[in-house]
Design goal:
With 497 residues, this protein is of the alpha/beta class. It has three domains: 219 residues, Aldolase class I (TIM Barrel), CATH 3.20.20; 93 residues, Leucine Dehydrogenase, chain A, domain 1 (Rossmann fold, 3-Layer(aba) Sandwich), CATH 3.40.50.10860; 151 residues, NAD(P)-binding Rossmann-like Domain (Rossmann fold). Helices cover 33% and strands 19% of the residues. The chain has 16 helices and 20 strands. The strands form three sheets. Strands 7-6-5-4-3-2-1-8 form an eight-stranded parallel beta sheet. Helix 2 links the parallel strand 2 and strand 3. It is elongated. It starts with a strand and ends with a helix.
């Protein structure tokens, strides 16, 4: 179930939010603590007003104090009295914190949600805490914590797995906790919370339409295949929209979620805890993921970078769709009439910006087509390391690392046919990865950053008369290759009808 948490300061505003989101929700959490004090006389009729405007919705009443992330600033005795009064006002559920003294509200006909909020971290004894919360049969234990790492998110999912015998709502707040809000079924949660578009009643809230339409939360079942994209940062990723829309279009029982990941070892633990059927890997984890694979394709073996991980009967298999994703737009740029074969880049000179996992895949792709590559990175040692690795892959190729001058810029500025940016500089429209490079207007400039497609580098190159290839074209090509792999797994794992 998806519950809309109201954020309005007036009853009329809250009812308006409910009307606008009614198609995507199953219930409402009325946040009384966010309402102006002048609205209190109308609170006893609020539950009935909600049902009148949106029949069938369940209604939860919450009066959250500041120490638990709310805005109640009046004396606690006044809050207790208000909770007791509201418990007799027709709400289906009422939220009571675990440390509250005995209240009349506990003996009302409403289901009690016994809650604890940890705004600073994740308790190490999360399972024990959840089990200790219910005071009476029928109460629901709610714990909202703040995971600060991927490892803490793993602990949340593991605890939820052991708590299937206790009615509960266990949620991770903030960016690390978003998967716990989407995967309600896997968490065993009674419900999940959302805020109206443009609002956020708690850190990490998504909007109801995103949960219901993009992630198709209401249709999740025990056999729903789960895929993900893992990176840091991850909020910019278009992958969840791309894959979920394609799963929905083909009526495939699968979901694709974002994972903020700070540690690759913990990512693979999380992949087992969820469990994931496969996942995409993005900046900065493509190289680190290789160490955790049990088998890998030739592209991963050559590039030492992996952007796609697939579950097998024996472990995890890695492939790298960045190679085909990168080459596809180049084929179109160099040979528009070419049918099915990549145009040769033999003899073309390339300035490769970056030295991470994406740069390794791009460098491998360029060398496989006969290009000459000069690597530039703000850390010269990393550029030298990548150049040496690429040279080992293609001993007859021309590969060099550009040296730095005393000011940290390139000691010499190459004249090239193609400039490729593989760094994250330019993401969100900020920064130029090579401000020192003067375009002649004859180069092709390719930026693999796709958020936004029109990066500062692309804008500057196009203004100089260069042909440009934007990152959304590479994204589409590599995502299509990934989707084909994920689709095959989801269909193969689907139960027979």
């Amino acid at each position: 179930m998806i519950f809309l948490t109201t954020t309005a300061t007036t009853i009329s505003g809250a009812l308006q939010q409910i009307r606008e989101q009614a198609s995507w929700i199953d219930g409402v959490e009325v946040r009384v603590d966010l309402l102006d004090s002048a609205e209190r006389p109308g609170l006893t009729a609020l539950a009935a007003a909600v049902r009148e405007r949106a029949p069938g919705l369940r209604v939860l009443c919450t009066v959250r104090r500041e120490s638990d992330g709310g805005r109640w600033r009046r004396p606690e005795s006044e809050r207790h009295e208000l909770l007791d009064r509201l418990s007799r006002a027709g709400f289906d559920l009422i939220d009571l914190e675990a440390d509250l003294p005995s209240l009349e509200a506990e003996r009302s006909g409403a289901t009690v949600v016994r809650s604890v909020h940890d705004l600073d971290g994740t308790p190490v004894d999360l399972e024990r805490l959840v089990r200790s919360l219910p005071r009476r049969p029928g109460e629901v234990a709610k714990v909202a914590v703040t995971p600060r790492s991927t490892a803490e998110l793993v602990a949340i999912f593991r605890a939820a797995e052991r708590l299937q015998d206790v009615p509960h709502i266990i949620l991770g707040m903030g960016a690390f906790g978003i998967p716990s809000r989407i995967l309600r079924r896997r968490m065993g949660n009674l419900l999940t919370f959302a805020s109206a578009p443009g609002e956020s009643a708690a850190p990490g809230h998504l909007c109801p339409r995103t949960l219901a339409a993009l992630y198709r939360l209401r249709s999740h079942g025990d056999s729903t295949a789960c895929f993900a994209v893992a990176g840091n940062p991850i909020a910019h990723s278009r992958s969840p929209a791309y894959h979920n829309e394609r799963f929905a279009k083909e009526a495939i029982d699968a979901v694709y979620i974002p994972l903020l990941v700070d540690d690759v070892a913990a990512l693979f633990e999380l992949a087992d805890a969820l469990p994931l059927s496969g996942f995409s890997v993005t900046i900065p984890h493509k190289r680190a993921a290789v160490a955790h694979l049990t088998e890998m394709g030739d592209d991963v073996r050559a590039t030492l970078a992996c952007n796609t991980v697939l579950r097998t009967s024996s472990g995890w298999r890695g492939v790298n769709t960045d190679v085909v994703g990168f080459l596809t737009p180049l084929e179109e740029a160099y040979s528009p009439a070419c049918a099915g074969e990549y145009a040769t880049l033999r003899g073309a000179s390339v300035l490769l910006l970056g030295a991470g996992g994406s740069a390794r895949a791009v460098g491998y792709a360029l060398l496989s087509r006969g290009a000459k590559v000069a690597v530039w990175n703000r850390t010269e040692a990393n550029a030298r390391s990548l150049a040496a690795d690429l040279k080992r892959l293609a001993p007859d190729a021309t590969v060099e690392a550009l040296e730095h001058d005393a000011r940290g810029g390139p000691a010499s500025k190459p004249v090239v046919d193609l400039v490729v940016n593989t760094t994250s500089v330019g993401m969100h429209g900020e920064g130029d990865p090579a401000p020192w490079y003067d375009f002649r207007g004859q180069e092709i400039v390719y930026d693999i950053v796709y958020t936004p497609p029109q990066t500062p580098l692309i804008i500057r190159a196009a203004g100089a008369g260069c042909r440009v290839i934007t990152g959304d074209r590479m994204f589409a090509a590599q995502a299509a290759a990934q989707y084909s792999l994920y689709r095959s797994i989801a269909i193969a794992d689907a139960p027979a009808v």
